[in-house]
Specification:
heterodimer, A: alpha+beta, Cytochrome-c3 Hydrogenase, chain B, three-stranded antiparallel sheet, 44% helix, globular, B: Rossmann fold, five-stranded mixed sheet, 5 strands
Chain lengths: 429, 156
């Protein structure tokens, strides 16, 4: 009888820190644990008793990588509670700032965190010695995303301009003139990025996933839509609790979120792409087809191509919004707080991010609940590892460990949202 | 971003919602009130690409961040990026996968390090979710403010 355990105590190149543990006994995978600690429960507690107007700035601190996602889910949830509707150019500006966040987050993950796995380097620093052009391109694209964020959000990190009802101040049309030129150039580089990503080597690995993402009749989803899946789910954000459940698992403080009836599911770029291909811009669709992607992709290792397609789309969409932009008369619509419960779900770079708030008549927060994308993907990541390792038991330990880490990074897990620290172990006794 | 003519840049890095992880930000805020006009002071979350962008073209950069290297809480480490690699364990507590240590090493590889990049690492005691510094780190923050001011006086 042989039995071994593969351990990675410190998972590099994921946002935050984490651990992975895989146990193999008699050439069979007997246990897989993605260990995550410290979910954003602190923030939920911290929000209680605060005014609704403070919420967007507090939740932005949960994650330095996707503050806009947290702000957007919170403002939509509180607007739902107060019966406020934001549309027209204010709604377009929210889409635009979200484009900036997708660009900077995807560029970071594609070039600096995930690419080294495919090209055989320990990290981006080693990779830069041989591929400085690739690294420089990643930094340029990321910077353009940051500039878009800074122009609308006021600051790149923890933007401060977002409020319930709209913004504190809005840019004039002319403010976009110079940035638009840079976005045009960056869009060409994003197009090249899709071509480059398509040529990377991909392990053969497909699973029968349930993909869950927002879907909107007229646009690729950022802020609005119904939560749908390829297996028949079709609900509003208000119905989330009826269909999903969060459970504690012994090895992780982060809650695992699963579908009550079918268990594990998959959120993020690949889910969005598979459920919303028709809503991509013609340029993004063309790039996807040229990259050899069909309208459905089930190999999570190819998520790097899909992230590139989404990044291209975000540039394309940002330019479209800027071209159609006219400065709104008021930076925000009027908001009157009331005692209510509101729900919001938007598409963070890593997938659906759901918020629920209960307020009193002054708009003070009585109760908050936040379900981040990484806690939704945790069970799917573990399932992937179980299936992936089972098919590769003959690999040497170092190679298997390498590929397992790569498989985790397919999901761009943000452990600073789902948690703070994570470490990884793969063990064969 | 630093203005194009800044010769001196101070970057405080951290997350004030993670207790002692906010040390770098607090040092930066205190320095903002007592530095000369030719010194730019920035607060950053520690996201590496933004750091590389911030120090591009600046001669002298002083970066302050909380660290967790196993030393006694409140210890102030001083590193010169040009002279030595940044020990990886220092910035493990960042929520970013590509943070201060990675940004310095990537800038070194790409030939984009500032002429002088001095890193002050304040050894933290607690990085749990919450506000406020521990007593040891509060004292270290005061000392670090003095040391950065002396550092800039020496450099100019």
């Amino acid at each position: 009888m042989t039995s071994r355990t593969i351990k990675v105590d410190y998972l590099a190149r994921v946002e935050g820190e984490g651990a992975l543990y895989v146990k193999i006994k008699d050439e069979r995978v007997t246990d897989v644990k993605l260990k995550i600690f410290e979910p954003p429960r602190f923030f939920e507690a911290f929000l209680r008793g605060r005014s609704y107007s403070e919420v967007p700035d507090i939740v932005a601190r949960i994650c330095g990588i996707c503050p806009i996602a947290y702000q957007m889910s919170s403002v939509h949830a509180l607007e739902d509670a107060f019966g406020v509707k934001v549309d027209g150019q204010l709604r377009a500006l929210r889409r635009l700032i979200y484009c900036g966040e997708w660009i900077q987050s995807h560029a970071l993950h594609i070039f600096l965190l995930h690419a080294p796995d495919f090209l055989g380097y320990e990290d981006a620093i080693q990779m830069a010695k041989d591929h400085s052009d690739i690294v420089q391109r990643g930094l340029r694209l990321k910077k353009t995303g940051n500039e878009l964020l800074a122009l609308i959000g006021g600051r790149e990190i923890h933007p401060i301009n977002v409020r319930i009802g709209g913004f504190y101040k809005v840019p004039a049309k002319r403010d976009f003139t110079e940035l638009r030129e840079r976005l045009l150039r960056a869009r060409d580089e994003a197009r090249d990025t899709v071509r480059w990503a398509a040529r990377l080597p991909f392990p053969e690995f497909e699973q029968d996933y349930e993909f869950v993402a927002l879907s909107h009749p007229h646009e690729y989803p950022f802020n609005e839509g119904r939560l749908v899946s390829n297996k028949g789910l079709n609900i509003s954000a208000q119905e989330f609790d009826e269909h999903f459940t969060e459970e504690h698992v012994a090895h992780s403080n982060a809650l695992h979120c699963t579908l009550k009836t079918r268990g594990a599911y998959f959120v993020g770029p690949m889910a969005r792409y598979n459920l919303n291909f028709d809503s991509l811009s013609p340029l993004a669709k063309e790039a996807a087809r040229e990259a050899g992607l069909s309208e459905t992709c089930r190999n999570p290792f190819q998520s790097i191509i899909i992230r590139s397609v989404e990044m291209l789309y975000a540039f394309d969409e940002a330019i479209r919004i800027i071209d159609e932009y006219a400065m709104p008369e008021a930076p925000a619509v009027e908001v009157t707080p009331r005692a209510a419960t509101g729900f919001g779900c938007t598409e963070a770079p890593r997938g659906a991010l759901w918020h629920r708030y209960r307020t009193d008549e002054q708009g003070l927060i009585l109760d908050a609940k936040i379900v981040p994308p990484t806690s939704q993907n945790q069970k799917t990541i573990e399932n992937d590892l179980r299936a992936f390792v089972s098919g590769r038991l003959l690999l040497k330990k170092e190679e298997l460990t390498w590929q397992c880490e790569q498989a985790v990074r397919n999901y761009d897990p943000c452990i600073s949202c789902a948690t703070h620290f994570l470490r990884m172990e793969i063990e064969r006794e | 971003m630093a203005s194009p003519h800044s010769r001196f840049l101070i970057i405080g890095v951290g997350n004030e919602y993670r207790c002692d992880d906010g040390a770098g930000l607090i040092v930066a805020r205190r320095l903002k009130q007592q530095t000369r006009d030719d010194v730019t002071v920035l607060e950053q979350s520690g996201e590496g690409a933004a750091l590389m962008e911030a120090w591009k073209g600046v001669d002298t950069v002083v970066l302050i961040d909380a660290v967790n290297s196993g030393a006694e809480a409140g210890t102030i480490h001083r590193l010169e990026a040009r002279a030595q690699p940044i020990p990886r364990k220092f910035f493990r507590y960042s929520t970013h996968a590509f943070s201060v240590g990675e940004a310095i090493e990537l800038a070194r590889t790409l030939g984009e390090l500032p002429d002088h990049l001095i890193v002050f690492g304040v050894e933290g005691k607690t990085f749990k979710a919450g506000n406020g510094l521990s007593g040891e780190v509060e004292i270290a923050v005061r000392d670090t403010v003095e040391r950065v001011i002396n550092e800039l006086a020496r450099s100019s």
